[in-house]
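step 4 of 6: structure.
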Amino acid sequence: MIPENSLAVNDTELNVTTQTADTTTATEMQLVTFHVGELLLGIPIEFVQEINRNLDMTLVPHAPDHVRGVINLRGEVTTVVDLGKVLGFSPTEIATGSRNIIVRFNEETIGLLVDSVADILTIKTAEIAETPANVPAGDGRYFNGVHRTGDALIVILDVEEVLATS
Amino acid sequence: MLIDDPALLAEFVTESRDHLADVEAQLLEIEASGADVNVELVNTVFRSIHSIKGAAGFMGLEVINKLSHSLENVLGKIRNREMVPTSAAVDVMLKSADVLASLINDIDNSDSVDVSTEIALLDRIHAEGAVELPPASSEAAPAQHESSPEDGKLAEPAAATPEPTATSQPPAEVTPAKAPAPSAPATSTPHESSVRVQVGVLDQLMNLAGELVLGRNQLLQTVGTQDQEGIQGVAARLDQVTSELQEAIMQTRMQPIGNVFNKFPRIVRDLSAKLKKQCDVVMEGKEVEVDKTIIEAIGDPLTHIIRNSVDHGVELPDARVAASKGATGTITLRAYHRAGNVRIDISDDGAGIDAKRLKDKAVAKGLITIDQADQLSDREAIMLIFHPGLSTAERVSDVSGRGVGMDVVRTNIEKIGGTVELESEPGVGTSLQITLPLTLAIIPSMLVRCRGARFAIPQVNIVELVRVREHEVADRISFVKDSSVLRLRGSLLPLVPLDRALKLLPGESSKSTSESSGTRHIVVLESGQTRYGLVVDQIDDSEEIVVKPLGQHLKSSSCLAGATILGDGHVAPILDVTGIASGCDINSTAEEAAEHHAERSATTADNTDVQSLLLFANCEGDHFAVPMGLVDRIERVRCDQIDSVGGQELLQYRGTSLPLLSVERLIKAAPRAESRNVHVVVFSVHGREAGLIAPQLSDIRQIAAEIDGDTFREPGVAGSLVIDEQTTRLLDLYELAQVAHPEWFVDKPKANAQGDRQQTILLAEDSTFFRKQVAQYIEGEGFRIVDAADGELAWEVLAAGEEPIDLVVTDIEMPNLDGLGLTRRIRGSAAHSHLPIIALTSLASEEDHQRGFEAGVDEYQTKFDRERVMNAIHKLLERVPARQ
């Protein structure tokens, strides 16, 4: 119920803001940014419940490819999704930088396994551009646009799309 | 005008529900007592309705107020003995109570509901009394019809009905009158969002919470001081408090099963009235408490079963009388605790299930083939009722045949960890047993490992644990194509390697479970009708686990029932026993295995007999075996307990002295090794007890090796066989005793001649060894033996008629025609059906015995137990002449 609505809202916001880029009342949003494969990704901070290094994953038989396993998150059995796998990269390798970004989706807590967490940025929604066609990883349906900060390009991840369709 | 205070309104709803919850049962009771009005009871109902009326009036709930007012009026009249509560009147009152309940459940819209019909009916009853009930009250009439032929209690009010002709018409009117009534859905229990908890339990919870806080404080303090002993103390305390807390919290969730049962009298009453049947409901154990989730889950399956009992089980009154049963059928509901579970028995004294009709139906629907149907026993056939797509109802009524079959009932019950069993006897009745866990939240389970990962298996599905050691693998596990089967006590159990079922990748910690060498750990599981062995790498421990749901991304796996968090904080998936079975196509594996087994028996006919042998060594390298079936018990004794008196070793034992036999004194064998303790194998021979000294016990094994009856043959040694590449001599305990103590056998009956003719016994046995062995001891008692190497040959001997056969002794497992087949053929032939038949087995389960007796076997004996075999022969032969 929530995903479709908010998805629609995001879309319209995007359209509106990209077309009227000079509007002075541009809203701001906070992004949690992180690396997955060669991409710098960002997700709106509202989704994020916590970021942890709880990587003690239990494999689950018959799980879809992109599900890495489950962890014990303070007594909740929490599914961990390998973002690298979802986006068509090779499976994320567990290294010192690896983190689980715990997000809330559909009343459920889900972990997103990422290579490393970068930063928390405040950006103006007006500065979000459409995803260029040359961004690797799939057909771009998991992306909500891009944001350029200095020489870095942050691809904004559509968490709901990732979790609903994967 | 509705009072605008949600809290007050909510309280009114809760209170009114409480009042109404009891009203139904009370009204039924009022109906049952008929003219003999129980004023106290009526008063109770009156007060309940009166309270609702009063509160509704205060809250401005007009419709509820009016309806309860009319209902109260009727009750008032009954209370004052101004009218008799007929079935018809009670019917209207019940319907009104239903409407009242539905109004209260939807309190916000209650004022817009039209209840004029109910009010009109009630008012008419009130005005005219039960005596002059107009035919217009269509609801009432069929019930009246039902009550009129009923015996005793209801005859009186029914007799008061002036128009018996009315009975033939009303059924037609029932339907339109019923359609607009919103009462039907209201009978189902409203979903409770709050639970009532005893104050005592609440106090206990509070106390425990206090203890928990104390424990925490202690822990925090002790951890600071690094006092190891102190920490252990605190841990023990916390452990105890947690367990108690768990129990107390569970207590708050427990509800009496009566909450579900209570709606059944009404369902049965309405349904039997509709079907023109007469049914009583007897309920026992309403106070048995189970978890609230189970109460909620069990309602629908139980309702379905009860409806089935009334619809298909209980016969029409005429049919019942014709079958010399009382016109009124009884449905019994019984709840009780058993072995940590809750059992619910639902039985009726109806017609039972017609196994044949069920088979025909299943064949007609293409669920099974005719051949399969022929092979099904009646007991197996009635289990067909759980097959999806089979409804026993000959016609589709609105009672059954709504697409919801017993298969759904079974699935729903299994979903909550329960099981259903069914028994039925034609003409006597049907009985269903449901076994339910007390709770779903915490379940006892067994932890296993496979490829380094841990899994939990619910204990309720586990039948037993089997360990097959490496050297036994070849004997006990056979491979059929890709799958394997375990030989377990004479039957074949399909095996499922867990790693393959779960498609686990090879972990670092272990190799493949299925192909690796070493000991196999097998968890024998049961789900519904299927039984299979799950092969795992290691069996850890049993643990009570808390079931946690898996996230949406993992819902698709049918092999998992959830996950749990273990003591060390790791997550372990919980296996779904049913899911794994269906995922692996167990049944076809089992069939293939059986075929394969049959082939094997046919080709290697000589050694299919599996013997249970006790293995021991007298000294290093000198191995012996004794048939387990002859062993009474095994004792471990100190050597100094053994006395030697005049060359005879005796064991002072339970106040008497037990004569002992030692191998090296009786047969060619090396003397036993010196040791402090020995084992004594106690067995009976010729009415005495004797003990065989077995210095080092090695094992008890099921062995299918071929026995060589020549090489080592001497009195006391039956033969030899190779076990684990070691030659092992098989001892004949009977002969050993005979060698040691010939005086025990002097009074042995000899020469069994009937008249001047020696009696002849036909022996069918495929194993050369046993044919010799058995023939020898039977001949030793003066009988003549005609032997045959399989059932077919034995039958030819009989059919030829050249030999005057007096008795048949047959092995069970034989090529061409097995023992059961031979028995059936003998019993089926006019010339030979009188012959006594003794079946000889190596290993026999209860089931095998049952099959044997069904085929017509008179006696079942173990091959090695010559005394019993001979006794059986004598006994059966004594019987025969009397028959001739």
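step 5 of 6: annotate
 - The longest strand of chain B covers residues 329-338.
 - Chain B has six domains: 6-186, 215-256, 258-353+392-437, 442-598, 606-745, 753-883.
step 6 of 6: archive
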